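Worked Example 4.2. Consider the chain below.
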Amino acid sequence: MPSIETAPARCAGEPSDCSMRDGKGNRAEKGHFTMGHGINSKRDFQAGTTMAWHQLTRLLKVIGRDVFPEIISVPLLYTVGDQLKEWEGVTVPISADDGLPVGVSSEESYTVFQPRAAFDFVAETLAGTRFTVESAGMIFNRSRWFLSVHLDELKDVAPEGQQFNLVWSGGLAHNQRPMCVLTAYRAVCANTVAMGREEGKALFAARCTKGFNAKLENSRGEIEAAVGMARIFAATLAGLDTIPATVDKARQVYAGELAEAGADLASTRSRNTLDDMVTLFRSGAGNDGDDRGDVLNGFTEYFGRGIAGGTKDKFSRWASSEFGASAERKAGFLRDIAGSGWDRLEAVGKAALADARKGTVTV
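Applying the procedure from the previous section yields the following structure tokens:
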């Protein structure tokens, strides 16, 4: 495997507060990224609609499937003395444009999932959805590939500097299983691919074994559903951000949800939970404590990551709401505060807080 080149740089085009990794896989200090791009040979490339941090981008107005070379599996030949022999049932993937290998030998049971196939799968799965392929590339002597798709339908509701991306990546040398993630990171290099795979919501991941194609086909529904949920959440949160909310109202709504869930607001544990939610509403990462979007984020952050957690980007808020622990409860809270349930929770919470005070408990 080629050694990873590193260069100090800001993560251009990515969330400004993303923490990246250096060429050795270590987390870099926020704001001081030392990234390995993986574009190490003349065969490697990254094509994009904008220039990436490594300044090696092949700029294109439109990125199509032909940006990737065709990958062909050819028989593995070897010599014994003067005799040229074929290893039956074993093939090696090569790139059709230069005839050189992009992977290692494999038996018939191994499925080579090439980047053009991933491109076609994305186009079919997202048919009817507005999207733009923003970045694509092959790295580490073309042994790995990635494809980064921006979900355009969410652009208008995403905050500045944030976006929803569908990123596919995989290896051709048994060095990385194919994976699709929904993430806030746009893939432009080895490190941004790694961050997306680590912190994004995995929608598909499978080893290239005999059952790979069936698993890939079965993933269509989950990918479509996840993109749909992201669209709904982003639109809902954008609406909530425009509705004012005070600390007192947030406390009452949180208290209402806790009371309906069976919590005793006179207990120390419930009081602490309520106080933590209000703290996240007021000063959680990305919160100003002045609208219903902050109310939602305080709730989902508490049940998704706890008081010590917190993220600024809308993607992570959605992931916390839809896929974290207590996902059903958080989804129900979202439905309530986005509709008529707000008034109900406020009334229930106000009464529950009053009852707790009657028990001489300070809330």
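Confidence is low (pLDDT under 50) at residues 1-35, 307-312. Residues 220-240 form the longest helix (21 residues). Compare this with Example 4.1 before moving on.
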